[in-house]
Amino acid sequence: MANEIKYQINGQLADNTVTVDNKEDMILVPVSIGNADENRIIAELKAEDSGLREETIRHVFDLQKRVIKRLLMTGVSVNTGLYYASVSFRGIIENSTWNPAKNSIVVNFNVGADLREAIKQTTVGIIGEKGSAMYIGGVQDASTRALDASATAGRAFTLTGGRLKVAGTDPTVGITLTSSRDKETKVTEDLWVTNDPSKLTFIIPAELADGTYELKVTTQFSGNSKTLLKVPRSVTKTIYIGTAPSGGGSSSGGDGGIEENPLG
Hints:
Residues 135-234 form the DUF4469 domain. The chain has 264 residues and is mainly beta.
C-alpha cells in the first residue's frame, strides 16, 4: 500500500551562480509551499481519518518524542524508518574530564529506508524559471567548506543565489537568525563581508550556541541599483550552527555532506 503512494515536488530553473561565464548552465530550486510545525503535523495526522481524537494523537506524538530522546541520550541509536539517529561528541577531552565549555553532544541524522523509498516515488515538475525572484541556491561554511547548511559561530557563512543583496531602509531589512526557541538575533552590518545580488557573505555571531536556526534575509533590492521595492521581500533557509543532520540539510546546487549509516 505504501509503495502505491506517489509524490511530486516542483522546482524552478535558476542560473548557476558558480559558473558565471556559462549563462545556459541552470540549477533547479525547490518551490516551497510552506513549513510544517508540530501542530501542522498533528492536524495532518488527524486528517488521515484515523478515528483518533486530536488529544490522543498529540499524546502519542509527545510520547514518541520522549522515548526517542531518552534512547538517544542514553547511547541507543534510533532507526525510525524515516531516519537513523545516533549521538557523537565534539571537542578535545582534556585531563580525562568532560568540559561543557569545550565539549558538546551532537545528534547525527541520516535518511532512512522509508524516506529513501519516498524519494524514489517522487516526481519532479519543472515549472519555468525563477526570473526576478529572490532565492538561495547554495550555502557554504567558510570554516569547514561544508555545503550541507552547517555553520560555525564566529566564522564566515556564504549564500549564493539571486536578488540577495541587502538594501533599503525598512526596519525589517537585514539578516536574522532565529533559534528553535524563537530567539531572534540580527546580524549587524559590521558583520557583513560581501553584499552582492548573487553572493551574500557574513559572520555568524560568535555568541550563538550550536543548534538549528532559521536564517532570514530581508531586502528592498529590486535588481535595479536605482530603485528599491516599496514592500520588502524575504527568503529563508534552515541552517545548523555546529553539525548539520547528515542527509538532511544539503543545499541546492551543492554536493551536500558525506552520508554515513551510524547503525552500520
